[in-house]
Amino acid sequence: MWTESFARFVLPARRYPSFWRLVGGSVVILVVYTATIAAMMVGITAILGPERGAAWLGDLVSGTTPYAVLVLLATFAGMFAGPLIAVRWLHHASPATLFGARPVATFAAAATITALVFLATILLPAPFDAVRQTPTGTFLLYLVPALAGILLQTGAEELVFRGYLQSQLAARFDSPLVWMVAPALVFGLLHYDPASTGDNAPWIVGAAVLFGLVAADLTRVTGGIGAAWGVHFVNNASAILILALDGSLSGLALWRTPFGADDVATLPPMLLHDMLVTVIVWACIRLWLARGDRTG
Predict the structure, then answer these.
(1) DSSP secondary-structure letter at 241?
(2) Cα(21)–Cα(24) distance, rounded to whole angstroms?
(3) Confidence grade of residue 55 (pLDDT, cut at 50, 70, 90)
(4) What DSSP designation does 11 have?
(5) Residue 206 in contact with residue 223, Cβ under 8 Å?
(6) For the chain, which residues make up each domain, given as ranges?
(7) 100 pairs with which residues across the strands?
(8) What is the pLDDT of residues 195-224, one digit of tens each?
(9) Rounded Cα–Cα distance for residues 241 and 66 (Å)
C-alpha cells in the first residue's frame, strides 16, 4: 500500500510524529475554524444590527440565497488556515508539505477527468424533473466568487483529512486501516445529520466515507492532495452550482431537485448513482496515472 510518492509525502511528518502533537494539532484546527466562524458571525451582527443580523444568520443554515452560500463557503477559511498553522507550530514543518507533490498539475488533471465523467452522466435519464433555480444573469454574476469559495472549502477539507491527518497518522502507523480508513470514517461521520436528512443520514455518511477512501487512495498514489482536491472541487461545484438538493445550499444552483435531503424514496438511488460515478472517476484517474508511469 505504500508508494514511493506517499513515503516522500509522509517524510516531513516523521520528524515530530508524537501522538500528542497530532491531538494538539487537531485542537488547533478546531479552534481556528470555530474562531473564524464566530468572528464572521459577530461581524455580520455588528454590521446589520441584532434583528437583521439574526434573520440573516438564519438564512445561512439552509444556504438558499446567493449571499448565504458565499458566506458559508467563506467560513472554511479557518479550516484552511488551521492545518497550516498546526504543522508549523507543532510539527515544525513547512505548510507547503501538506500539499505534497505537484499539487497544481494533479489538481488540474483530476478535475478535468472528473468533469468529463460528470458530463457523460448528464446523458443518462434522471428519475425526476429538475426545477430551474437561479436566473442565468445572477448565476454568472456570482460565478467567480462561488468557484473561489468552493476551491477554498474543498481545499480546506483536503488539507485537514488528507494533508494533515493522513500524513500524520501514516508517520506513526504502518497499517492503511489507520491512515486511510480512519480519516475517511471521520470525514463520513461529520456528514451525519439526521435532523435534516432523516433516514437518509446513513446513506449520506456512506457516500462521504467512500469519497474519503477514494481521496485517500489518490493521495497515497500521487504523494499529494492535488488529485483528491481536483475531484472534490468538481464534485462540490456540480452539487452547489449545477444541481443542488432543495433546501441544501441551493442558493446559487442553476437547478434544484424537487425533493430535499430527507426524501427516502428518491435520494438513496441518487446517492447510489453518485457513489458509482465516484468509483468510475477514481478508476479513470488511476488509469491515467498508470499510463503516465508507463510512458514516464
Answers:
(1) I
(2) 5
(3) confident
(4) G
(5) no
(6) 4-295
(7) 224
(8) 899 999 999 999 999 999 999 999 999 999
(9) 10
Q: Give the torsion sign (CA, 14, 30, 189, 146).
A: negative
Residue found under cell 435534516 = 196
Per-residue pLDDT, averaged over 233-243, amounts to 96
How far is 68 from 57, CA to CA, in rounded Å? 8
Inter-helix orientation angle 201-222/267-295, to 10°: 0
Q: Are strands 131-132 and 255-256 parallel, antiparallel or unpaired?
A: antiparallel
Contact between residue 14 and residue 171 where contact means Cβ atoms under 8 Å apart: yes
Provide the residue type at 126 as one letter.
A
Secondary structure element (H or E) that encloses residue 211, with its range: helix 201-222
Q: From start to end of 154-274, where are the E strands?
A: 243-244, 255-256
What DSSP state is assigned to residue 242?
A: I
Helix (H, G, I), strand (E, B) or coil at 63: coil
Burial 80-91 (b: 16+ CB within 10 A, else e): bbbbbbbbeebb
Identify whether the C-beta of residue 259 lies closer than 8 Å to the C-beta of residue 246.
yes
| C-beta separation of 68 from 251 below 8 A | yes
Distance CA 75, CA 152 (A): 9
Residue of 237, 278, 253 lying closest to 130 (CA atoms): 253
Amino acid at 143: L
User: Which residue, chain included where needed, has cell 444541481?
Assistant: 243
Query: Structure pTM?
Result: 0.95
Distance CA 156, CA 165 (A): 12
Residue reference for cell 483528491: 228
Q: What is the pLDDT of residue 52?
A: 80
β-strand partners of 255: 132, 243
In the chain, the amino acid numbered 253 is A
pLDDT category of residue 293 using cuts at 50, 70 and 90: low
Q: Distance between CA atoms of 217 and 154, rounded to whole angstroms? A: 17
- Please report which confidence band the pLDDT of residue 63 belongs to, taking 50, 70 and 90 as the band edges: confident
| pLDDT, averaged across the chain | 93
